[in-house]
Amino acid sequence: MINKYKINTGASVKDYNKVSDWLSFEIPNKIKISSGKVDIGQHISTTLALICSRELGIDINSIFVNKLNTDITPNEGITASSLSVPNSGTAIRSASIIFKKNFLDFAAKSLNLNINNINLEDGVAKDPNSNASISFWDFSKTGEFLKLSIPEIIEIEDQKNFDHSSHVETKFINSIVKGEYKFLHDLRFDDMLHARIVRPPSYFHKFLSINNAIHKYLKDHNLKLYIKNSFIAVLGNDEFEVIKSLNRIKNSIEWEQVNKLANDKIFNLIDQNSKDSLIVKRGGEAFHENIPEIKSYNNVDHKTLTSEFNKPYLMHGSIGPSASCSFYKNGKFIIYSHSQAIYALKSILSNAFNLNEKNITLHFMPGAGCYGHNGADDVTYEAALLSKEFENKYILLKWTREDENCWEPYGSASKNKLTATLDENNKIIYWSSEAYSDTYLTRPMVGKLEYFVSQRFINNDFKKYKVEPRTGAHMGIHRNLDPIYNFKETRLVKNLVHDLPLRTSALRTLGAFANTTATETFMDDLCIEANIDPFEFRINHLDDNRAIDLLNDLKIQMEKDKPSENGFRGIAFSRYKNSASYCAVGVELTVSDNVEVELKQAWISVDAGEVAFKEGIEAQVEGGFIQAASWSLYEQVNFDNNEILSKDWDGYKIIEFDNIPLINTSVINRVGFPYLGVGEAVAGPTGASISNALKRALGERIKSMPFSQENITKQLLG
Questions:
Q1: For 218-255, how does the pLDDT look when each residue is reduced to its tens digit (9 = 90+)?
Q2: Model confidence pLDDT, tens digit, residues 604-634
Q3: What single-letter DSSP state applies at residue 88?
């Protein structure tokens, strides 16, 4: 008996419900697939091609991914929240299923055959008794193909459990390794101008004057200076001359400091500053309701514990600084950007320059070593501004390392406060968790040009903008504040803290990294208090079988490896946004006599639904583990009253190769289940598992990241 199951074709299909929106057959023997999600190294190009390949029975090397361009590819919004494969993947899978079904019907009629008697190979349907055949490419030329639409729900037969043991070559990897791949930074056009921004010392510096002697230098070196209030740029045909001029120009400028950076201890500011406080309910939505007091229990058999967790400001820390290229002529822009939000940027630029969106084309082009956020949106706006001033010239604007470190929007510093009560059976009967943070949601948007870093200097407006707290499920501050565990009673509160010193926006996972770390470290404190195994304690508070299976899988993995000498282990678990991938992490570490932490080994178990590209999932979770380990052990933005101090890699430490452990990854394949986003799922469990191992090593909970030698020593010594 053939089992059938239904799949929801997803959010992307609602706006693009034609098969031809996703699949194209204009090149003989090749298939082109389209997506509105950008590939910035998370392997979605390979994953989407694999999905199409398996559904249509076409070699993956015959499938190409359309270059992302706001004029021709589907608008799937921002590439974020681990939604690329759930959205684009499901859409392409659905389009492939619908196409194949209708093609077989068409072929059966054309060849006068029963569908079951058709031999389908490499996109060609053949009559086994003759030489008659018809191909996908023949069908695509018919009017019938263009009419094919994708319903909201489709029914499919049981899928094969594809062999994921064989290697699949990642799209573009050969050309990248050989140095042949063209990144945005490599763009060259005839008579192109290179540009750099002349930055002020800090957020609160206003341009007063420039020494006139600089103008002769600029003229002699064929350089142009653009000044609009406190926004200053230098441009020239020779990139090296532009770079050399930067310090000379900076030294020629007089600035006025209109305000200082607040540099009281940041976690004191988080406690003291004004806040908008909202209740978060199970399900993850926030509401403007009265905040109840923390409940206290007087029963002698009950145990109440409290905890606190602090996370500093973090930067994206991308190896390559941001860049953008822009061309403007006759009221039209052509722009190249590595932003993960090119469709939103198109609307924003349309509003900013009072142009019809049809007059703006944004091409996504990967930046060398760049994130999809960091300074991507800001540099694109700056490049567009300059190209409008220098019409009919391509402007390639690159940020410097100092630009990147000092001017990108950071992930907010945050604080978590927790209280929980265990009953006489060591079950959690009460759970209170509060998250305190600046906003994560200040990506530029229509009508909010002040979210661009340069706009404050263009306007000479140095006031800190105020944002309203978001209420949707698992939004910025309260992402994963609502734990997946079963607790009898919960009190969940998000606190949007105002007037904090540094510019913040979305950093990978938003509030989930801090919230999951806080939750899972506190779960460990409670399991130690209850004297129950950490796996057992968590399972005792779960009724989600997939979560239980995952924890058991991690336990089996870890038991295979004997602990190293002087090694201490910790575990943690979460489901990202309570709707994406399940992920459990175990680590083993040692702590030296001078309290330096060395990661020895890591184990990761992940359930991302049906597996489309196993190697891609492994790469995503292992890369995510390394990033979160770096956040946990090393990273923090340092600043004083006048400026950002973390200007380079000496001032902003990241993990190095000698402290990356052996990582063992187990991927659970749920055939027939929806694809789940995996990219961000590992971060929170990584931070918590490191913290939990540290507590076992030190006998004391280190409550502030990073878990650096300095911070550990400071806490241990009081």
A1: 999 999 999 999 999 999 999 999 999 999 999 999 99
A2: 999 999 999 999 999 999 999 999 999 999 9
A3: I
Q: Which of 107-116, 137-146, 169-178, 473-482 has the lowest mean pLDDT?
A: 169-178
Question: 101: which 2 tokens?
Answer: 């079904």
Backbone angles phi, psi at 662, to 5 degrees: -65, 125
The reply to whether 389 falls in a domain is no
Query: What is the residue type of 563?
Result: P
Q: Which of 159, 176, 198 is the last residue of a domain?
A: 159
Bridge-partner residues for 328, per DSSP? 333
Contact in structure between 515 and 416 (CB atoms under 8 Å)? yes
Q: What are the CA-CA distances from residue 549 to residues 163, 606, 675, 688 (Å)?
A: 22, 10, 18, 20
What's the DSSP call for residue 87?
I
Tell me the C-alpha distance between 394 and 125, whole Å: 48
Q: Is 703 left (phi over 0), alpha (psi -120 to 50) or beta?
A: alpha
Q: What's the CA gap between 203 and 76, in Å, rounded?
A: 34
Residue 354 lies in a domain: no
- Compute the radius of gyration of the chain from its Cα atoms: 27
Tokens of 224: 């142009």
- The SS3 call for residue 248 is helix
Residue 212 lies in a domain: no
Residue 322 lies in a domain: no
| Domain finish residue from 130, 159, 188 | 159
642 secondary structure, DSSP code: S
Which residue range(s) make up the domain with 141? 4-159
Tokens of 388: 């409008």
